[in-house]
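Here comes an entry:

___
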Amino acid sequence: MLENNLKGKRIVLCVCAGIAAYKSVEVLRLLQKQGADVKVIMTQGVKEFIGTLTFQVLSGHPVFTSLFDKGEDSSVRHIQWADEADLVLIAPATANIIGKIANGIADDALSTFMMAVRCPVVICPSMNTYMYENRAVQRNLDVLEADGFTIVEPGTGELACGVSGAGRFPEPRFVVDRVIHRLTPKDLVGKTVLVTAGPTREAIDPVRYISNHSSGKMGYAIAKAAEFRGASVTLITGPVNLEPPLNVKRIPVVSALSMRDAFLSELEHADIAIKVAAVADYRAKHPADHKIKKKDDEMIIELDKNPDILKEAGMKKTRQFLVGFAAETRDLKENATAKLKAKNLDMIVGNLVGDPSSGFGTETNTVTFFYRDGSREPLASMDKELVAHTLLDRIRDRMTP
């Protein structure tokens, strides 16, 4: 079973001299939060921005700053750490260290260490815009990318030097996201995954609508997990307050009808289609053009039934592996099994909403997988991102080769 965290992974964080060095502290903490064991190498110049003690206390390991550091393993530390690492992260990476690595120069602790590294390397360039755009720097980055290094594109905006443009250190959570991506096995390369997420909103008037409590977290977790595993991912999303997954095609929609049109349009290109979105079953028959004013008597709103997107998809599917979700309040097995058959699905994920550990808005989910052959697989309560990877495991194993 794949997990999206870094539990037990040994990561060497290399910090170069730049104003963004202070953000490396947050990167370190986020890596540790994911379960990684992190050691830190600093260039000499970093000491002008942040002290070694900070990284030493937080990492729980001595900080490597010089080939001539005092200590029992100081003379071979660059070889030992390189041999033990599962991944090396250089964040921030200056023009200087990028040039050294690209051209095989080893004249300090970090660059000498890099000559011995055989594991995956993620590099986060951070520098003045003019430096970043310099032809030599871009040429060196191209060399590193061709050599198999992962380059995280810097952010764009106002820099500490006052210049506005590319070169900003990415948000630490994005850096860690790319580290997880680099270490996730790519078992879905060549596959196109279509995911829907979130609620739909059906307008009653310009200020009111019919909707539900879906947060979109489960769908976004699946899209993110599929991208980690190398798939080309399209995410059709209702209105949510979530950070879009990186490198995912995102199609925002509002109503059930707009989600239907987007889903059926993208379905023909998909190998795997996973409909997680909680689509409203009904919409107002005659939405008002202006705000409906409150009256003393009762108000009746006529409703029309929305199309059953998943049932339409089941009728249209050819080679696609089609997965649905069933959020129920009772009779989970009976309701999920009925939906599986009626909508011609390959698999349906059922869960009982209302429990604090499962359903809308929670960080965890307690689900049961129901399969076309009649079998079912209840899972323990787990983080939604782990549910996402477990689901992709089962889809991968059951897809027609």
